Amino acid sequence: MEIKRYLTRRLIQILLSFFVILTVLFLLFRLAPGDPVSRMIDPSMSPEDAEHLIAQLGLREPLWKQYVVYVRNFFTGDFGYSFHYGRPVLTVIWEKLPNTVLLFTSSIILSALVGIFLGKIAAWNKGKPLDLWMTIGALVTHTVFLPWLALILIWVFAYKLGWFPITGIISEEIWLDPESGAFAKLLDVAHHMVLPMATLFCIHFGSYLLIMRSSMLETLKEDYILTARAKGLRESVIRDRHAAPNAALPVVTSVGLSLAFSINGGALTETVFTWPGIGRELVFAVSHNDYPLAQASFLLIALVVLVANLVVDILYAYLDPRIRY
Amino acid sequence: MGRPELKGDIEIRSRQHWIDHFFEGWSVFWENPLGKIGVVLLGIFALMAVCSFVPPLIHPMYHPMTGVDPDIYSSVGPSVRHWLGTDFMGRDIFSQLLAGARVAFMVGVSAAFMSIFLGTAFGMIAGYMGGFVDTLLMRLADVIMVLPTLLVVLILASLFGQLNIWTIVLIIALFRWPGVSRVIRSQTLTLKQRPFIEAARVAGASHMRIIFRHIMPNVLPLAFLYMTFRVTAAIIIEAALAFLGFGDPGTVSWGMMLQWVWKTGHMFKALYWLLPPGICISLITLSFYMIGRAMDEVLDPRLRKEEAAR
């Protein structure tokens, strides 16, 4: 099985990459100017508790021993206690993760689908005004400054028109009300999600549109398209069945490659909308000097990007039968 | 993976004709509507950056950072005295906007220049040396590539405290070279097979001489194409960082202005303050992006012929 060998190789690669990140982060947190102990120990802790934790983390031991403890703690899921929440970092992050995944994956998938669809239309109408306007529109939405777009969307749709809530993920009056059913709660979250999702959607669909457009133009030059034409197939069949599926492949790749960029955007979106996700948690932790939380959220995000890249590769192999690893 | 071969093999051009090539390239560039819009927009921003020195000379109250209108201590809408109004301390928004253009150019160009320098050097070395050096550099590039740069800078800001603008530029450069290095590496790999490299080697040229004298001139145009995209990336990261409140407190950047309007709770009251910085960041990004795409077509004739294909 070729795919199995490829997967093992990629998994080892990912593990290695992750170890590099883990180690660099360890060194940074220990060797950055200032007292490393103060970065691991909650300043509000009692001296006895602090002393206990210092001994446990081996902060007075040589660096390599600290590293061993650090790696062991990582693999047992022990990231220490958040200074701000006073709870284990892992449980804090675990609570926020679903919110991020919900917002992020749904907006990426939606923007990829719309980008593919519009890119196909643009390429099909190459040279016509429709194509030009779509290209310009894609460029503009792709390059607009994300936090500003978020603020403008809030200004227009939440403040002026009042259609959507300004920030947050739930309305307390609905969630605290024992009367409201699951559907009402779900609807409430969806209602809060519209604007953040629209922000992420705007930023992403443009680049997918442009990639789909140029890839589609390449595909339309292929011989099999000529064959399809010669067979007398309908134009819409050629476009939707023969050209588009192949042309969409580079979009899948670009979703993976631009993931780091998307994560930046996700963190900004979450912060502006106070959407309780990992990205906002990281920004919050950094501005409140909550080092254990900052470190753990960063590691988790890095891990997610690495795994997502693998998923995209597998998806690509599945979608394109010509690719065999 | 991307398709680096798409970028085409850039021919070595004889030196006497580089002026002709420049004008030929320029005319192709100028025919492209995107390139034209991009250059005009960029020209406006360059003018803004140059003019940013003027307002403080007219009156100290127009100083973007320290100037305060003695009669106004809050945010007031546009007037003859303050074309775009004042911010929460009574500072002139228009002069801040001009100063922001200067910061954007400074950050964007210097970070892009550094990351292109690193990317080109590493790419050439990896491609030319091959073997262990290649694997090491490219694995390192892989690791850096998956890291979201903004979050990396955030983490570093939490560890090292307040970062000044040049540290931010340096960090951005250090984390944005992998994309370029990949492209330069693949270009170097094809160049390595060419007879003129073989000839140089037989003639006894050292590795350093081959890399910098024979390979570099052939990959530089490609590197500069990537520079425009790196400029936008650097500007956006700096702006986002400043927006989140981790920018250099000693500089007035557009991201900083947005952070002020957002954090001081003026965003629903002062549209004259909310709109200009965001529009500027978006437009300068757009202009570099358009120039990059137009340059793509100049350097890659295959894209030019797209028109004729269908």
Low-confidence stretches of chain B: 1-16, 304-310
Mean pLDDT of chain B: 82
H and E string of chain A? HHHHHHHHHHHHHHH
Main beta-sheet annotation of chain B: none
Share in β-strands of chain B: under 5%
Number of strands of chain A: 0
Report the helical percentage of chain A.
over 70%
Using the alpha-carbon principal axes, give the shape of chain A: globular
Largest interface: A-B, 60 and 50 residues
Rg on CA atoms of chain B, Å: 23 Å
The structure class of chain A reads mainly alpha
Strand content of chain A: under 5%
The global form of chain B is: elongated
List keywords for this structure.
heterodimer; A: 325 residues; mainly alpha; globular; B: 310 residues; 14 helices; 71% helix; disordered C terminus
Question: How would you describe the overall organization of this protein?
Answer:
Chain A contains 15 helices and no strands. Chain A has helices at 2-31, 36-40, 47-57, 63-75, 89-124, 129-143, 146-160, 172-176, 182-219, 223-230, 235-247, 249-257, 259-272, 278-287, 291-319. Helices cover 71% and strands 0% of the residues of chain B. In chain B, helix 4 packs parallel to helix 8. Chain B has helices at 18-31, 33-51, 54-58, 93-129, 131-146, 149-160, 165-175, 178-192, 195-202, 207-243, 254-263, 271-299, 301-304, 306-309. By secondary structure, chain B is mainly alpha-helical. Chains A and B meet through helix 1, helix 6, helix 7, helix 13 and helix 14 of A and helix 5, helix 6, helix 10, helix 12 and helix 14 of B.
